[in-house]
Amino acid sequence: SLATTGAQFTPYAVAAGVLAAAGAGILLLTRRRRALGRH
């Protein structure tokens, strides 16, 4: 059923969201560091 497939897919969706958030945070930090370094 949809409930079982959703339960099996949820962990992967959460992991993907965490990785995406971490990647975005790293990009923002690197951009900020580069901007500060330029100035």
Order of helices and strands: H
Distance between the termini: 57 Å
User: What level of helicity do the residues show?
Assistant: over 70%
In percent terms, what proportion of residues is strand?
under 5%
Number of domains: 1
Q: Would you report the number of β strands?
A: 0
Which shape, going by the Cα principal axes? rod-shaped
Plain-language structure description:
- The protein has one helix at about 1-39.
- It is an all-alpha fold and about 40 residues long.
- It has one domain (about 1-39).
- The longest helix has about 35 residues, at about 1-39.
- The chain is rod-shaped and about 55 Å long.
Which helices and strands appear, and what pairs or packs with what?
Blueprint: H1 2-38
Relevant terms:
39 residues, mainly alpha, 1 helix, rod-shaped, 0% strand, single chain
Summarize the structure.
With about 40 residues, this protein is mainly α.
